[in-house]
């Protein structure tokens, strides 16, 4: 049976109003009484309703986070950055995913209606930007991580995808590579378009293949190109997962990396250090992006005006043995 505020009040010999004041840090209770109430709360294992506490305090002291899926390889780092920041500010975190499509969005919307959190950090799920914009216009503070080129009207934290692509190209060009293959991600992502444009601005190539960010996609693309006799001396894959598939296909075909073909990825997820050979890649500061987004949201909740332009964090090329 759930312990209620009435149970705490009866056990402590005080009114429910006194218990509520102790819980909500109102300060109108003398020290000895407050201590006795806290002891009873601990003894009974009473957990106050976050909604009730938020109503009393004027906020829930909780931040929401909406993401497409936790299966994305870099999502854990982004989430950790958000968690570290909100917990340090004595906020809680409610995490919502869109694994079940419309059902997930409906559940999330119900929590918004119940005012279960004060503001929202978002890694945009597909086809939700219009709804998120409406929520922002209705007064919900929102910060977006990686705007995918959509440039929303609310604050965002982005990284230098164009420069990241350019840095990969400069590195391959300096190594004497002249026939690169670029394996993109889905073109409707702004980050993909930016990475491609950055690369082509430094090292033009007509060998550009649309990929899907999967290991299988990277492997099959290289297998098909090798089977048709297509020549290339390097690969720039738009994420580390597809780059791992490229490495696997090259190894199976007897091509030496990097002697015959150099490979560069993007993201610098933990796996990149453990491929064979270890993967040269463009480091995306995913944890720092989560931290920056959470700080921006908390500052906004504290009354600070948000910047008009996105917060931009730099990428950095990390050189390993796949493209020294």
UniProtKB/TrEMBL annotation:
Which species is this UniProt entry from? Streptomyces mutomycini
For this UniProt entry, the molecular function terms from Gene Ontology, in alphabetical order, are: DNA binding
> Which superkingdom does the taxonomy of this entry point to?
Bacteria
Position of the signal peptide: none
Q: What is this protein called?
A: LacI family DNA-binding transcriptional regulator
* InterPro entries reported for this sequence: HTH_LacI, LacI/GalR-like_sensor, Lambda_DNA-bd_dom_sf, Peripla_BP_I
CDD domains, alphabetically?
HTH_LacI, PBP1_LacI_sugar_binding-like
Task: Tell me the Gene3D superfamilies matching this sequence.
Answer: 3.40.50.2300, lambda repressor-like DNA-binding domains (1.10.260.40)
